Every structure is written in C-alpha cells, then in structure tokens.
Prior knowledge:
- The chain has 2 domains: 2-95, Beta Barrel (Elongation Factor Tu (Ef-tu), domain 3); 107-242 and 280-287, Rossmann fold (3-Layer(aba) Sandwich), CATH 3.40.50.80.
- By secondary structure, the chain is of the alpha/beta class.
- The strands form 3 sheets. A 7-stranded mixed β-sheet has the order 10-9-8-7-11-12-15, sandwiched between helices. It has a 6-stranded antiparallel β-barrel with strand order 1-2-5-4-3-6.
- It has helices at 26-31, 75-81, 117-129, 193-210, 230-235, 281-287, and strands spanning 2-15, 18-24, 37-41, 51-60, 65-71, 88-95, 107-113, 133-140, 157-162, 169-170, 186-190, 238-241, 257-260, 263-266, 273-275.
- FE2/S2 (inorganic) cluster (FES) is lined by residues 246-249, 251-256, 266, 268.
- FE2/S2 (inorganic) cluster is lined by residues 246-249, 251-256, 266, 268.
Amino acid sequence: xxxxxxxxxxxxxxxxxxxxxWYHAPALAASVRAGQFVHVRTGDWSGLVLRRPFTVNxxxxxxxxxxxxxxxxxxxxxxxxxxxxxxxxxMLGPLGQGFQVDPRSRHLLLVAGGLGIADVRLLVDEAIxxxxxxxxxxxxxxxxxxxxxxxxxxxxxxxxxxxxxxVGHHGLVTDLVLDYEAWSDQAFACGPLPMLGTLxxxxxxxxxxxxxATLGRKRGAGRPIPIGSAQARxxxxxxxxxxxxxxxxxxxxxxxxxxxxxxxxxxCREGPVFAANEIDWEAAVGxxxxxx
Length: 292
Ligand code: FES
C-alpha cells in the first residue's frame, strides 16, 4: 500500500450516471491485482475531505494506466466527474484482498450485477492474459444499463440478462449460471447481495449436482485449511467481492463489517473478496449492506 499521485488522462460517461476514468499511475498499475481497491481523496464542496473506495477496474503495467468505474451518487463522485485531463488526485492503495485463482483453473465464470462489473473487470484481463477461458454473465435492469461490449476484450464470452428482457435473457442473471456450472472450474462474482446470496446457495449445491471432485481434493487431503486463508479461497468454487460503505479503509473503524460464519469480517481488510462459504448469507442479505 502506498500513496499514489495519479493524473487524469481521460474521463468518459459510459452509461447514464456511470463513468470510467483513466489515470496515469504507474506504481499502482504495476502492483494492483483483480479485486483490490484504492481509497481516493476527493474534493468535497462541503469543505470536508473524505476518501472514497473504488475497485480498480483495469490496469495496464506497460502504459501505467489504471481506470476506475463509478456511479455518480453523491458529492464526492460528482466532484470526480468535473475533473479534466491533467488534473491530479491522490490514491491510497492497492488495498484489500483480491481474487484468488487456482493455477489449475482453465475455465472461469464471472457473474456481475450492475456496477458490480467494476469489481470483476480486471479479472477478465488477468485471466485472458494467463490463457484461461472466461465467460462473463452480466445482469442489468434494462438495455440502458447494459455494460458496453466495446469495453471488453474479444476473447471473452459475454452473456447479458435484463429484468425486462429488452436485451439478452429475460430474467435474472443467476438464471444463467446452471448452464455454465459444469464447464467452469471456478466462479467469481460481484453485485447486489440477493444476487450473491443466490449464487452462494447454487455453489453450495454444485458438487452434489455434478457429482464431481472439487479442485484440490487429492492434494493435502485430510489437512484442514483455515477458513479465510488465501489457500482456502483459491480452492473455493465461488469467490465474491463484497461492497460496503467505508470509513478508514485500513481496518481501524469497523465501519465496513459484514457477518461471516466465524464472526465479523472487515470488507476493507479481510475482503473485499471472500470465499462464498465464509459469509453468513442470511445475516448479510438481511442486513442489506449498502453498495458503495
Ligand atoms: S472501513 Fe474502517 S475498518 Fe473497514
């Protein structure tokens, strides 16, 4: 983690109320991993200076360019949309625990609901770079909120579901998952809590439905792997990126806690990526954690 001086290269509104901004930040581009985030210091017209967390959307170590994708929801994000090329801001990061891909996984299923695509977008690039096959299932309310395919690599299979059926599958994105569960070695998701809860329930029943061995069953069989460890997450079929409002983003304020099966978990430190079986879904969905 370090304090990074980032220079805005380009700012573009890609969907109603949603923006992608590209920043020149070589140290961040070289070190960030999919699922990690930065805490950005924004100007605030109230006179307060508050940082906002943003998952790193893309990162190119060769050019030193990183991007963030956000929805304009308050004064901090509104301030960001007024920045122009050449403006600078400071980013603290990379922060948090990113996605853990098992080296043996060849087929990755990514599931994103709405702005949750920002959390899995970098994983698309990393997986394709590493020679993996990737399917991205994306869910939105209607066609006006569908993430543009022009922002995705050609190697990706991109499947869309909309609530009103205006584009792609008519229904929930989770309806599509069973078509890919036998194909996929691992799955990674981000989106609204009910979506994640549904995916977690599907993942819990997957082994029984498919009647297949899970990854890594032979290696280290019998030795307990601590829940929440990188190794346990790497072995999990489903990992989820949790979204919470944040205060400090470094583990001190407990403002970002979600309920795990082994007690409270700080999204900024133990997360934002967790194995699905680490989360107490009944408590988490019931609490209705806020999207940031
Ligand atoms: S935001 Fe302060 S502990 Fe996570």
